[in-house]
Specification:
mainly alpha; about 170 residues; 8 helices; single chain
Amino acid sequence: MQKEIKLIARLGLVFLLMAGLQVVVSAQGRGRGGGGGGSGGSSRGGRSDTGMGSARLQQQNLEQADQELHDHPGMAANLHTSADELRTGYQAALITNPNLKFGQFVAASRLGANLGATNPNITTNAILTGLASGKSIGQTLQDLGLSKEQAKDAQKRTDKEIKEAKRS
């Protein structure tokens, strides 16, 4: 019974994360200009080349995430989640930010979990949004209300937590 409740709670969190990311994706619909150039003579135009590049980058990042989860099979459980939840959340986050590395996603997830109770505006989605806008995790944490020192300390604790989880 308790396992079922935990599973339902985890699935609920994954769905909330995906819904939140969908909102972020919808809000990202602003154009960046530059209609047709930069494709190196391709007849497809710049936008389709960019889309194909993003899709390729997303696939590469997903493959690297799968490899990391394979190399560290106990990591997800030690971070109080499952490999499938990490994969699903990361895949959803890549829609908004194809440049997002798996390590950044894991760190954002842990920081959101660790800091969210005492700092309600610091959520995984808020951190991912900051990363998607080109900010570092530290800059994002400061924008969300932490001092520079608090942000550094939180990152150090989270990095240590992730490293220990990988060792197990």
